[in-house]
Design goal:
The complex is a heterodimer.
Chain A: H1 2-6, H2 13-40, H3 56-120, H4 128-159, E1 167-170, H5 171-188, E2 192-197, E3 203-206, H6 208-224, E4 231-239, E5 242-249, H7 283-294, E6 297-303, E7 307-315
Parallel strand pairs in A: 2-4
Antiparallel strand pairs in A: 1-3, 4-5, 5-7, 6-7
Helix pairs in contact in A: 3-4, 4-7, 5-6, 6-7
Chain B: E1 7-12, H1 16-28, E2 31-36, H2 39-49, E3 53-56, H3 65-74, E4 83-87, H4 93-101, E5 105-109, H5 115-126
Parallel strand pairs in B: 1-2, 1-3, 3-4, 4-5
The chains are: A alpha+beta, B alpha/beta.
Chain lengths: ~325, ~130
Amino acid sequence: MTAAIIGMNTPSSGDKELGAYRARISEHLSKLNEIFARAAVGDFESSIEIPEDADDEIVSLYTGINIMLDVITRQLKDLHANVTRGEELNQAKSEFVALVSHQLRTPLTVIRWRAEKLQMSDLSGLSPHDRSGVDDIVDAADEMASLISIILDISRIEIGELHVHAQDLDIVALADETLRDIDLSAREKRITITRAYQSPRLVMAADRTLLKAILNNLFSNAIKYTPERGSVCISIKKNNHKIEISVADSGYGIPEKDQPHIFDKLYRASNADKSGSKGSGLGLYIVKSILDKSGGAIRFETTEGKGTTFFIEFAESGMMDV
Amino acid sequence: MMADTKKILLIVEDEVRLAGVLRETFESQGFDVEVAKTGAEAFKMILTTQPRVIILDIMLPDVDGMSILHRIRTEKGGENIPIIVLTNLSPDERIMKGVVRDEPSYYLVKADTPIDRIVEKVKEILV
C-alpha cells in the first residue's frame, strides 16, 4: 500500500510527510555510516553531533554511540599506557640485570684466576680430598662465569643492543678454538670428536664473539646430550653459495613433542635430565636470536635414541647486521 | 737468539688483585711485566719501556681504555703494538668497532677466560 502511494505522480500531504521522513532517515544513516567508517579504521575519537530537532529515539541512539566511542577511546589509551609501562619496566629490568652481572664479574675473575693458579701449583702437600676441592672451585667459577655471560647475552637481546660486527675470519680456525675450550668435557665422557672440514680454511665475514657463542652452545650441547663413549661430528662446508656448519651427535635425540619448542626461552626437552647435566634452557634461544639478528638460519634433524644434527647456514656473504 | 727475547708486557689494570695475579703468572713464564694503574701511567710506560704486547682494561680511573687504544695507534711507535683488550664489559658497539678499527687488537672477557688461555694468547701473538 505504501509503495503504491510513493509511486503516485501527484503526491498527497501524506506522501510529502513520508518523503521528508525518508530524507531524514537517509541523513541519519549517512551520519552513522560515516562514524562507523572512521571506527573501522581505528578512529574512535570522533562523535556524532546530535541535531536539536532530532526525535527521541535518534537522540538516544546517537548518545549511546557517543558514549560507546568515548569508552573505547579511554580504554585504548589505558591499554597503550600499560603496554608502554610494561616495556619500560622490562627495559629497566634488563638494564639492571646487565649492570649487576657486570659488577659480579670482577670478584669472580679474582676467584677464578687464583683458583686456576692454585690448581697449577704444587699441591702435593694437600690431601686428595682437598685437591679435588680446588678443582671444584675452578669448575664452579667457570660455571658461574658462563651463567653470567648467558644472562648478559639475554639482556642484550632484550634491550635490543645485540649488534653484528662482521670481519673476515677463518671459521675453521674458530671452530677448532671453540673445540679446544670444550675438549675437557668431551674427554671426561670419552666422546670421539670428528672434524669433517671441506677445506682446512674457510674465510667468511663473521662477528667473532657472536659466532663463537653459537658454536660454543651447539658444541657444548652435543657433548652434554650424548652419552659416554658416543661421538660428535663437526662439519663445515661451502656449497651453492651457502656456508653450512653442522654439528651431529649420537646422543639422546629430541622427543617429537618437544621439537617445536626447543628454540623457546627457558624450554628444556623432556628427556634433557637424562644427561645428568644442568641446563638453563637458554642456549638454543640465544643461538636462534643471534642467527635471526645476523642473517643466518638454523634447522635440525633428530631421532630419539639415535642423535641430533643441527645445521646452521649463512649466505656466502656471511653474517650481517639485520 | 734474537736480541728482543726480553719480552716486555705492559698490563694496564687498576684492580690490584687482578693486576697481581696477571703479573705473577706472566713473570713465571719469563716475561718482564710492567703494571700501569691509570691511562696516564700507561702512556708514560709505553714511551719508556716499549712493550711487545699490552694488556688493556677498559674501565680505568682516569681515561677510558678504548680511547687509550685509539691514542696508542696514533702515536709514533704505537701503530703496531699488539693490544689485548681484557675487560669484563660485554662486547658492545663501541668496543667492537674500536677493536676492529685499531688493529692489531684482540678482545677477551676476563671472567670467561682461563688465565693460562691469556698466556697462550700472548704467546700466539708473539710468534
